[in-house]
Design a protein that fits this description.
Blueprint lengths: L1 H15 L10 E3 L2 H14 L12 H6 L19 E8 L3 E8 L4 E5 L8 H10 L1 H14 L13 E4 L14 H14 L8 H9 L1
Parallel strand pairs: 1-2, 4-5
Antiparallel strand pairs: 2-3, 3-4
Helix pairs in contact: 1-6
Length: 206
């Protein structure tokens, strides 16, 4: 609930704040409750992707900027939006930040508790993000007119950013706050400077 609430704060700033606070208007913050629904739907999608339909569903409203209903932006993916910002729970108890680049067809993952980069750990994070790497391309193929977005067959590429470039939560337990601040900094177009265990409790309270 806290994750969802702060994303609503960011979206409200996007809709109402004057002067506009973020580095570009071509962004969208994806609602946490919708992300939860999306990930549950992935279990059905992966059985037979070719039979899964997006048009005429809540996904179409998402792509058209009509979701969530009480914070509509009416900004359409590709036409008006280049980047999606998602805070995603993986493994049942860990939050990461995702920057989805719709133009480059790529997702960057910002993880505050990497531990050691191994093929296995990086693959596990990728697997946890399959709902986005696999479903977004098909969603766009079905909903966005072909004259605006040429249909693609490939899933989005994915990169778990190296921990040398992402502040690490060494004390553990604040990954949700880290993920939210990563999203906010990305949207503002600023560095992650100052996001650290020494400051994270003050950031949590704020």
């Amino acid at each position: 609930q806290h994750i969802a609430a702060y994303l609503r704060v960011l979206r409200k700033r996007f809709i109402t704040r004057d002067p506009f606070p973020f580095h570009t208007k071509r962004i969208a913050f994806i609602d946490s409750w919708f992300v939860s629904y999306w990930c549950k739907e992935y279990d059905q999608f992966k059985i037979k992707p070719e039979r899964f339909k997006f048009k005429g569903t809540p996904y179409e409203k998402l792509v058209l900027g009509l979701e969530p209903k009480d914070q509509q932006t009416n900004m359409k993916w590709i036409e008006d939006v280049d980047h999606l910002y998602i805070v995603h729970q993986i493994g049942g108890n860990h939050w990461v930040a995702l920057d989805v680049d719709l133009i480059r067809e790529h997702i960057d993952c910002y993880d505050s508790i990497v531990g050691q980069h191994t093929k296995e750990s990086d693959f596990n994070v990728l697997e946890a993000c399959r709902p986005f790497t696999r479903m977004i391309p098909q969603m766009m193929n079905e909903i966005i007119p072909p004259e605006i977005y040429s249909p693609r067959l490939e899933q989005f590429s994915f990169r778990r950013r190296n921990k040398s470039r992402v502040p690490q939560n060494d004390q553990v337990g604040d990954c949700g706050v880290y993920a939210l601040k990563f999203i906010e900094c990305l949207a503002l177009g600023v560095s992650f400077a100052g996001i650290c265990d020494e400051n994270i409790q003050a950031i949590r309270v704020k």
